[in-house]
Amino acid sequence: MLKIFMLYAVFLAALGIPSDIGAVPLDIRIRPVAFGQPLLLDSLRYEKSGNETFSVSRLSYLVSGLAFQRPDGSWVKPELQAAWLDAFNRRNSFRVQNVPSGRYVAMQFAIGLDAKTNNADPTSFPAGHPLNPAVNKLHWSWQGGYIFLALEGHYRAEGVRRGYTLHFARSANRTLITMPMAINLQSARGIHIDFDITSLLAAPRPIVFSRDGSSTHSRKDDPLAAALAANLPGAFRLRYIDSPGGEVAARPKTLPLYLPDQPQSFPFKMSATFPMPSLPRDNPLLRGRVELGRKLFSDTRLSRDGSLSCASCHLHNKAFTDGLAKSVGIEGRSGIRNSMPLFNLAWKDQFFWDGRATSLRDQVTMPIENHLELDNSLDNVVTVLSADALYKMAFSKAYGSPEITTEKIALALESFLLTLTSYDSKFDRAMAGKAELSKQEKRGLELFMTEYEPRSRQFGADCFHCHGGALFSDHDFHNNGLRLQAGDEGIGGGRFATPSLRNVELTAPYMHDGRFSSLEEVVAHYNSGLNRSEDLDPNLAKHPKGGLGLTKSDEAALVAFLKALTDPKYTVGPKAP
């Protein structure tokens, strides 16, 4: 049968008719550049129209509608719902499977999504999918739809440094890019494209921030959004086409670690409005493992002197914080940062204020060995627990063996922490039609979700940029305008993790060093107390030096709304599993 198909393909080729027999995988690589050279992030060095220099701190966008044109004018559309690319995360390529082999004369794709996909339920996309909001951080949550392209950074004009945020969106703005190219997919395996940001801001409609505005959220008839749509097609250029470079090895299948003979799953509970999380495939949630992690979390034997446990700094009725500006370890040793809340961790991939741990199983062992916290050794913990017959039984239930190891301790703590979710606040019940926000809380929600953009007569509090989405955090790192203490700059440039604002009423004091004792102080900081350093996040740097100008009643409304994010299960003692 295969021989007949091959002869048929040869016959069609002889007649000049394209054949879809035979298909190849194709890598599309889009390199962000400035003036034709690789883009350097956070470098205020690029010149543009209006005698302005600019930098880029964020370039994140969605690609869809990939198609290839044959010599006869017909178009072939491989299966690709969407791809997400992000310069900061070095996610600059995507693979398309089963592209019919043959000759093509053009390639086409769109920046943005069609209306149906743009308006689809974002919670329907599985973990890891490019349209999962927890992956791309481009969904506008309750406003609906996705940001098609987010370009953010700083600019300098007439000696003054400010921020800019260009959020290109709305279904009507989906922009097609068509690139002529001669390509034979019987031999080519990759297409390399340059995305020139200087062209995006320059031609055919030059964008001058000091003249045209430095922020857009693509409202109807917004000239800044129209300029981006006009400039996008000319910003992409073919760089070169790859020849075969060998087969790509298949990714090995992830297998569960240490499964017991009769594993019993533990139900993971979340809101229907949350994006699907990427739970660890090698550490499935098992009842015995979660129960073991819960026990370990409260065991003071994890500390060197038996005085403290994980639960000592993460109290259930404070949303797993401790109420102190800086946590206190054994022998009264003062830590350097505020204790972070421990709910909805299943959606995070970097932990601690500085993101130094990239998994929960890595994170949970660090406080055990930290001199300012539990000040123990992992070997000593294993020795102590191994002498406890009840722990041996618990490890057998969790892993099928009584052997106690550091890895198994970490996996159990990871399992327990993953089950700590929060999604049942007054706000959630109001969104589901089961409660109603007060007039003041509604005003706070309006301010929270509205950008500060005087050019389009929007005068909100602009909170949603970093704290939007169902999780009320982008789980990213930002410089939020604090005057830093010497020796603690987070991951650099004063950037620290964005905590969720769920249960924020319970987690005082606030910021990485606990400098603010009340929500009123936090709101006042963002309204008029920012330290305008060169590393200030662009979404804050675009605001005027005098602040947002919120009235006292508006500040109070924001605080009222933030308190509506409290989950009642964290105001009482924990329930049994």
Our count of domains comes out at: 3
What percent strand? 15-25%
Give the end-to-end Cα distance, rounded to a whole number of Å: 59 Å
What's the Cα radius of gyration? 27 Å
Helix content: 10-25%
Number of strands: 19
* Continuous helix count: 18
Structure description:
There is one protein chain. The protein has 577 residues and is α+β, with helices and mostly antiparallel strands. It folds into 3 domains: 23-242; 287-418, Orthogonal Bundle (Cytochrome Bc1 Complex, Chain D, domain 2); 426-570, Cytochrome c-like domain (Cytochrome Bc1 Complex, Chain D, domain 2). Helix content is 24%, strand content 19%. The chain has 18 helices and 19 strands. It has helices at 2-14, 115-118, 133-136, 197-200, 209-212, 223-235, 287-297, 360-363, 366-369, 378-386, 389-399, 406-418, 426-431, 439-448, 464-467, 519-528, 538-541, 552-563, and strands at residues 23-34, 37-38, 46-48, 52-54, 58-69, 75-76, 83-86, 93-100, 103-111, 147-157, 160-169, 175-184, 190-196, 215-216, 236-242, 452-453, 458-459, 477-478, 496-497. Strands 3, 4, 5, 6, 7, 9, 10, 11, 12 and 14 form a 10-stranded mixed sheet that branches. Strands 1, 2, 8, 13 and 15 form a 5-stranded mixed sheet that branches. Strand 16 and strand 17 form a beta hairpin. Helix 14 packs across helix 18 (552-563) and helix 16 packs across helix 18. The chain is globular, with a radius of gyration of 27 Å. The N and C termini lie far apart (59 Å). Residues 1-21 and 245-249 have low confidence and may be disordered.
Write the layout of secondary structure elements.
Elements: H1 2-14, E1 23-34, E2 37-38, E3 46-48, E4 52-54, E5 58-69, E6 75-76, E7 83-86, E8 93-100, E9 103-111, H2 115-118, H3 133-136, E10 147-157, E11 160-169, E12 175-184, E13 190-196, H4 197-200, H5 209-212, E14 215-216, H6 223-235, E15 236-242, H7 287-297, H8 360-363, H9 366-369, H10 378-386, H11 389-399, H12 406-418, H13 426-431, H14 439-448, E16 452-453, E17 458-459, H15 464-467, E18 477-478, E19 496-497, H16 519-528, H17 538-541, H18 552-563
Parallel strand pairs: 1-13, 11-14
Antiparallel strand pairs: 1-2, 1-8, 3-4, 4-10, 5-6, 5-7, 5-9, 5-10, 9-12, 10-11, 13-15, 16-17, 18-19
Helix pairs in contact: 7-11, 7-12, 14-18, 16-18
